[in-house]
Amino acid sequence: MLGSIATSARQYFSLVGTVSPRYLALAFLTYYVSVLLYGIRWKLVLNGVGRDAPLGELVKAILASIFINNVTPMSRSGGELLRMAWVSRRAMVPTGVSAVSIVYERILETVPVFVLFLAGMTYFSSEEPIPFVLLGVTGIFLIWVKWDSFVRLSLHLFKAPVSPEEIERIASLKDMHGLNVAAIILSSVVWLLDVLRLKLITLAFGLNLAWSFIAVISIANLFFGLLAFTPGGVGIIEGGLIGTLTYFGIPTALAVSITLLERFVSYVVSSLVGLVVLLTSGGVEIWKALKSQ
């Protein structure tokens, strides 16, 4: 047993030594471009509810929230609350309005997530994709028809003080077609950048996998993250991604190396950057005030 562990360790370190710095740098770039796009999308939604905030503050709030998400149990358990408090204190946006903007972002994200889900289902299923397409269209249609109920349920889950006027404001966002299209496009680009990042990480090891395969792996990674209940999904995401890669024939040592490098970019470094932002931008005081409420 010790011999096999030592062999695996040697294989892993030999693979790490072959990583291409150029592809690794591009993987980092795609991650932080995604953060910038999240900030732009958030700014657009805030504008839609009649509020404005500096893009720099929104990006700082997102970076700090990534750190909080990575150290607290359950996906987005504390990070979204920090974002609400941050924009409320730094841009004088009422808490209810900031909650509205974040909930609306999540609602708009359902469109690209549905598309990814359908892509994954059709890839794994030997049946015709029509039932899955109908399922996705039905889901989006129900959200759209029952928009007010969906908004109220989402705000209830956030437990944010939202006035009837603010609820009406987010309900009216449904009719702002330009905002919806722009936000959905930004959300879709972010998910495409996630796929691109995984592609770049595999290329860093000299592995040129098909885009369709990378997309399926990215979808699996997304759902592992959604199901994870540990801080930052530690253990669950890594185990799931390694298992998925090896299931599709990637050698174990290479699957481990790809997973650890991806998590180094999306978890380790992002946590360190978020911590620095939290410590240097007054985020600690915001977080302490939030916890004391």
Molecular structure report:
The N and C termini lie far apart (52 Å). The chain has a domain at 21-191 and 269-292. The chain is globular. Helix 3 (55-71) packs across helix 12 (252-280), helix 5 runs antiparallel to helix 6 (130-145) and helix 5 packs across helix 9 (177-204). It has helices at 2-16, 21-48, 55-71, 79-90, 95-124, 130-145, 147-158, 164-172, 177-204, 211-227, 236-247, 252-280, 283-292. 80% of the residues lie in helices and 0% in strands. With 293 residues, the chain is mostly helical.
Task: Provide a short characterization of the protein structure.
This protein is an all-alpha fold and 293 residues long. The protein contains 13 helices and no strands. Helix 2 packs across helix 3 and helix 4 runs antiparallel to helix 5.
